[in-house]
Design goal:
The structure is a homodimer of 383-residue chains.
Chain A lengths: L10 E7 L2 E16 L7 H12 L1 E11 L5 H19 L6 E8 L6 H11 L7 H10 L8 E6 L4 E7 L12 E6 L5 H13 L5 E2 L9 E6 L8 H21 L7 E9 L2 H13 L1 H8 L5 H9 L11 E4 L6 E5 L2 E2 L3 H7 L4 E7 L5 E8 L3 H9 L3
Parallel strand pairs in A: 3-4, 7-9, 8-15, 10-14
Antiparallel strand pairs in A: 1-2, 2-3, 2-9, 5-6, 6-7, 10-15, 11-12, 11-14, 12-13
Helix pairs in contact in A: 1-2, 2-3, 5-6, 7-9
Chain lengths: 383, 383
Amino acid sequence: MKSICAIDGVRAWGIKEGKYGLSLIAAEGTVAGVLTRNLVRAGPIEAMVKRIENGRLAGVIVNSGCANAYTGELGYQNAEAMAVIGAEVLGTTPDLIGVASTGVIGRHLDLDLIRRQAATVAPHLTSSEEAEGRAARGMMTTDLAEKHALIRGDGFSVAGLCKGSGMIAPNMGTMLAFLYTDATVEAPALQQMLQQAVNRSFNRVVVDGDTSTNDIVLCTATNQRGTVDPASFSAALETCCRSLAIQIAADGEGATKLIEMIVSKAPSEEEAATVAKTIIESPLVKTAVYGEDPNWGRIIAAAGRAGVVFNPNRVSLFSGEGTKRVPLVRDGTIVVDLAAAKASMQGKKVVFELELNAGTASATAWGCDLTEKYIDINGRYTT
Amino acid sequence: MKSICAIDGVRAWGIKEGKYGLSLIAAEGTVAGVLTRNLVRAGPIEAMVKRIENGRLAGVIVNSGCANAYTGELGYQNAEAMAVIGAEVLGTTPDLIGVASTGVIGRHLDLDLIRRQAATVAPHLTSSEEAEGRAARGMMTTDLAEKHALIRGDGFSVAGLCKGSGMIAPNMGTMLAFLYTDATVEAPALQQMLQQAVNRSFNRVVVDGDTSTNDIVLCTATNQRGTVDPASFSAALETCCRSLAIQIAADGEGATKLIEMIVSKAPSEEEAATVAKTIIESPLVKTAVYGEDPNWGRIIAAAGRAGVVFNPNRVSLFSGEGTKRVPLVRDGTIVVDLAAAKASMQGKKVVFELELNAGTASATAWGCDLTEKYIDINGRYTT
């Protein structure tokens, strides 16, 4: 198994017909969820608010192709109707069915299609590597790769799958993640740990800074193992989220390189994250990485506008990792060897570390380079 | 005259030799200035802090090709040395000489070059259309067009020239603007009015969200006319800044279209500006404009993540201006005619108006589309 079907009590399947897909995941348990912070929230997101408050689900139904976003009161009613369809095929009640959608904004759900696809998918629900793959593909839009993660803890496992090409696809930039654990965790504790894990993973991925109306991360604990050490469970949950988040960054539209930006020796983790995200969002940094150009001035200039206080004349900046790691700036003095710096930026993953020398906290953010293909995909698309 | 040489008491000239240019502008008067808010500030910016506090200048010396940024204490000393050079050729004292630089970050000024270029330029200082053009070109880097503005008020004039390809050029994304008026204005009042005009013009231009280490806007009042009505002077100053700001947006690297984003019926001007800037900064919106794709969902989704409270189900959205203006969304209901909407996005200028229906304030922001050429320029560049 690569992800969720490694968790006892999880069954899955999915279908993809042209642009329209549907996935079902059946798993009874305690639930925590993190929803989009965009003020414009899709129908299914509105429908999830009280379900997450209740803290229990028996399964989820997810469709791709239509986001059911900016569809008003009817959109909310359609999301509830989708939960009814999910409840019928899974043999439970609609309040125990999670709903999520991804696709074009401003169009209403085709409930007949969803009913037909759900009826097709449900009989196949099973726990296998093929099943988790089908579920992953049923919710993909412009994603080029399935995204799975599985973390084995001491007496428990945490697994997840997600879709997302970095909140950037034409009209369908949604990030959906479904995590499962066999550990026994109460809903309030799960919610707190999920929120922290999301803050340190999905919320540190920037492809183009756009936040979808439909983003959701759900974690279901099937409670089939005993209770677990909160610290080790929390760490496993964060590792699982981070793995998925990095897969999203690497699959950013048009991306050729994953960028990992570490900001260390910062006054606080939050400030380190702010600086890291500001750098990784900079189109100048993203295009420099694309061109394998060690244009370190752009990194320091982006850090300077992040709104975090540090002394620019005390920072150090490194490029690359392992044996290819080279200093660009040390304690405010330029020490770059341009040829070595350029060499450190080759390959599929580019790592920078900026030491602010203003404290002891650190944070990492992930992004991707900006290429002509991003323009082509998003500019040539016609509504 | 197209700009500053229409103001009594202003003389100018400039030179451009390959990547390296130098401009001199002589004009005695009261001075106000707005400096970059980037924490990483170039040497010349540090040197300007006390000169703006003093509120008087006799002239400015500006070089292009080297930003003298991230150059530490020596960078500051070199900026002061450049002021000494300017004072020598203009026959005044260094504390009355403004300095500004634009170009590559992390390299020291070539003071010999600056001394030679200043000696070459100074004898030509004069007040003519050719002179203001030479001064504009001497400070250009990747700009494709000179940027001039001239506003005639009731008994006074305000004029300016600036350089800037939208804070986005490789290593030299600086915005420099020099404004002149013949009106009599005290320094504190001029500072206040300039700050407001900059907030409503240059601070509402977004090409890629990067803020230069070297940005400066200076306004000199030569006091050769009488005192003026503060309201009408303030309006003229803002109009002049806006004209220059729009020219910067239109000259954004790789841009094919100017985008004007109006946000109206907002709770406050500041909130309207925040929403307008968030939209205009969105790569999804910028690429949609490039492709003339009326992808209005991207505009509303960007507005939703701006951090301003409004009811998404009450907004209206329009595209185009004049006879081509068409509604896309009205009071939360989708009314778009895709063909008409697409037609409204053709041409060199694309206008959107988003009515939040949450108040009476409004604000406008300006930007440009995002094209393959931006990637080419910024990705292919090699440090």
